[in-house]
Amino acid sequence: MTIIDVAKKAGVSPMTVSRVINGDPGVRDETRAIVNATIRELNYTPNLSARSLVTSREIRIGVIYANPSAAFMSGFLAGVFEEASARAAQLILLKGKHGRPPTTAEISQLIASGIGGVILTPPLGESAAVRDILRDAGLPTAVVAGRVPDAISVGIDDRQAAHDMTRHLIALGHRRIGFIVGNRDQSASAERLAGFTAAAHEAGIETCVAQGDYSYASGLVAGEQLLDAAAPPTAIFASNDDMAAAVVSVAHRRHLDVPRDLTVTGIDDSIAATTLWPPLTTIRQPVQELAGEALRLLIDEMRAAQGKSAPSVSRVLDHVLVERESTASPAVRD
């Protein structure tokens, strides 16, 4: 509902509705009563963010997240806080419980607080239910590390990143490579699997795949599954660093040396990649830069659109393969 809808229903001008909302004394009591009754009937909430944009006051942006990766969220929040500080924007955080999206009531309450746009972390960025609520509210939305047609999307080329890492492992001499897939609800997971599969097919090597969800716990289960195979892989490529760190833990429990007995790689270049032993070879996904760019584009769209629909924007940032000590040529075995 907009102020125009209220005006039509009440039979007055949008300016009159605005005066009632702002407590202007120059409105007749009878007219004020009709407008207030219509506001209640239509469940209209004043768009506080639109007013702040017009008067150049602080912009309010909702940040909705339910990501199980602490490392990803650390980089993400650093990026949005830094950009918000530079843009004099206020961030309102809403976290889903147990990795699930917030409830409809919680999202509606966030919208009613007067936010002017929303930034979503994976996997919520690709949740149709969440995006439908935001679209119905007319809120510009930015998605980090995801691809959607009706919102700002900022990420890396996930397929090419996985292809590059797989080619690196093949160049080291690995001919049996395991891969751990990420969350089924994220397009990045399918893209990374596609990049891995394409590179393996091009080289004609053996592969085995296990399902994860980007959490450390899922990496433990997937790592055990891959290493329990009759012919276990000599290298395991996990779709993120948290799952790769879990695989290293599984290898150590089995008294396997990394990388002499097992090569392990990931994607993100999070703090986990440099604090575990051995340091992890990984694809650097610039999470902090992705978050900052998404917020910058969102604020720019909010200022430009001011309630009007704006074309979606897709931005792809560069990834880098960072080689550390968790990779080596495969050991010779009987």
Spatial strand sequence of the major β-sheet: 2-1-3-4-5-11
Secondary structure: number of strands: 12
Helix content: 40-55%
Q: Report the mean per-residue pLDDT as an integer.
A: 87
Number of helices: 13
Largest sheet: 6 strands, parallel
Topology pattern, helix = H, strand = E: HHHHEHEHEHEEHEHEHEHEHEHEE
Poorly predicted tracts of residues: 52-56
Beta content comes to: 15-25%
Radius of gyration: 25 Å
Class by alpha and beta content: alpha/beta
| Dominant shape | elongated
What is the CA-CA span between the terminal residues?
Answer: 71 Å
Characterization of the model:
With 334 residues, the chain is of the alpha/beta class. The chain is built from 13 helices and twelve strands. It has helices at residues 3-10, 14-21, 29-42, 48-54, 70-86, 104-112, 128-136, 158-171, 187-203, 216-227, 241-253, 271-275, 287-305; strands at 59-65, 89-95, 117-120, 141-144, 152-155, 176-181, 206-211, 235-238, 263-268, 281-284, 314-316, 320-322. The strands form two sheets. Strands 2-1-3-4-5-11 form a six-stranded parallel sheet, sandwiched between helices. A six-stranded mixed sheet has the order 7-6-8-9-10-12, with helices on both faces. Strand 1 (59-65), helix 5 (70-86) and strand 2 (89-95) form a beta-alpha-beta unit. Helix 1 crosses helix 3, helix 5 packs across helix 13 and helix 10 (216-227) packs across helix 11. Residues 52-56 have low confidence and may be disordered.
